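Request: Give me one sample?
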Amino acid sequence: MANFIGVFLRSLEYGSFYALSALSIILVYKTSYTTNFAQATLGMFNTFLVATLVVRQGWSLYAAIPIGILSAIVLGILIDVIIIRRATKAGAVGKQIITLGLISVFLGLAPIIFGVDNLSLPRLISAGTLSIFGNPFSYNALFNIFFGLLIMITMFTTIQKTKIGLAIRTTASNETTARIMGVPTKTVTMAAWAMAIVLSLISGLMTAPYSSVSLTFMNDVQITAFLATVVGGFATFHGPVIAAYGISILLNVFQVYMPEGTVWGKPILYAVLLLIMYFKPYGIFGKQRVKKV
């Protein structure tokens, strides 16, 4: 039992990485009606900025993070205003191709601006451990868990209980109707892009200390986040987040408790997810959209 609690808590930590990225994907999808395939690349770019300030310029991590957040906000606003807003006639697939182009752009810019070497980013909380049922957990790991959950609760409360959230939900339901009702849909989509890239940055800052900041260090997080979005369903904001935590828990359980789990854990997880999609093609929390004529 103690071992399972350890596996469960570690799953929650990694699940936070995936959930933040999944929430960023669904936030853009629901407001801009497109899938942003460049989400991880944009997170990588801003994480590289923070790592460069810390490693090469000698900044404190806590001083560099606000600069990264500011960069993420500005980047999100510029992408929406200059690119996405001008591609209204491109359609959903056209916008997706644009986001694929953004991957190439920022993968090219990153080594030019930040150099070609991988950078090591320190943990947000550098020292200290706590034993939980005999399982040692760093304070940083516990911070990742609780901070990730705090962000989710804050976002969902904002979406469900505030006027800002009402504007987001109205825009997500029908942008044209929302505009007629006086909702500033352009401001909503601009804010959604900015917030989505900030969420990707936070996911990157949490992930980086477990590897190193490189051009591809967010790829696994991105893939898992997209899986969570598909399995959870594109119809709700909470579905992909719940699926992200569920995928993390299942993967760790398979890898720890199955024979040769480190080898077969992921293939079996993908088989389970395919089985879920067979019976729930619109996602666990999704539903088929019916157009009324």
Observations:
- Residues 9-118+125-214 form one domain.
